[in-house]
Amino acid sequence: MRTLVVYCHPCPESFNAGVLAAVTETLAAGGHDVRVRDLYAEGFDPLMSADERRGYHDEGANIVPVSKYVDDITWCELIVFVYPTWWYGLPAMLKGWFDRVWLPHVTFSMPTDAKGSRPKMQHIRGIAVVTTCGATWWLSKIVGEPGRKTILRGLRALCAPRCRTLYLAHYKMDTSTPESRSRYLAMVRKRLSKFAN
């Protein structure tokens, strides 16, 4: 399966880098054709310029500033996000990737007076989130997990009608231990392997 891994963490020595390694190794072992986009390492610019915003709805031309990233999302059948949950949501870098890459006419059709917007990413049949959260499970639930909802509800609505989802979080990351991190990595390998096959 053609699988895009979108990775978002600024520190190459982070635990999230270890999570990325576990994810890519698991996918490779399952025979997936994997592309990795390391947004920080590539220097992705999350800021939408004024000119880019003015041309946001211009079909074809709106792709030009981010064409290689648009190619990724139109290529993949499975997309896996690896990132830290900060302030209960997506890192600004990843939110900027959504803002700039998930464009109208590519990922959804623009609504008209006659009909509403239509999803255009039906080739994506699976979405997985592998994340770390400083907060506890219960506090994350009370706040509402906006990052989780953005991806597994908002993004999923643009994908295949029966698009499957997976959410794997290491809660209480701020007080994690070598044992808790090891258990999490083992869970990621097991659950992702099953999900991706």
**Major sheet description:** 5 strands, parallel
**Low-confidence sequence ranges:** none
CATH superfamily: Flavodoxin domain
> Total domains, how many?
1
What is the quaternary state of this protein? single chain
Overall outline:
globular
Helix content: 25-40%
CATH C-level label: Alpha Beta
Q: What is the residue-mean pLDDT, rounded to a whole number? A: 95
Named CATH topology: Rossmann fold
How much strand?
A: 15-25%
Q: Number of DSSP helices?
A: 7
Side-by-side strand order of the widest sheet: 2-1-3-6-7
* Number of beta strands: 7
N-to-C order of helices and strands: EHEHHEHEEEHHEH
Radius of gyration: 17 Å
CATH architecture: 3-Layer(aba) Sandwich
> What structural category characterises the helix and strand content?
alpha/beta
Write the layout of secondary structure elements.
Blueprint: E1 2-7, H1 15-29, E2 33-38, H2 50-54, H3 67-75, E3 78-85, H4 92-101, E4 108-109, E5 118-119, E6 126-133, H5 137-143, H6 146-155, E7 164-170, H7 178-195
Parallel strand pairs: 1-2, 1-3, 3-6, 6-7
Antiparallel strand pairs: 4-5
Structure write-up:
There is one protein chain. The chain is α/β, with parallel strands linked by helices and 197 residues long. It has seven helices and seven strands. The relative contact order is 0.18. The protein has helices at 15-29, 50-54, 67-75, 92-101, 137-143, 146-155, 178-195; strands at residues 2-7, 33-38, 78-85, 108-109, 118-119, 126-133, 164-170. The longest helix is centred in the last third of the chain and has 18 residues, at 178-195. A five-stranded parallel beta sheet has the order 2-1-3-6-7, with helices on both faces. Strands 4-5 form a two-stranded antiparallel sheet.
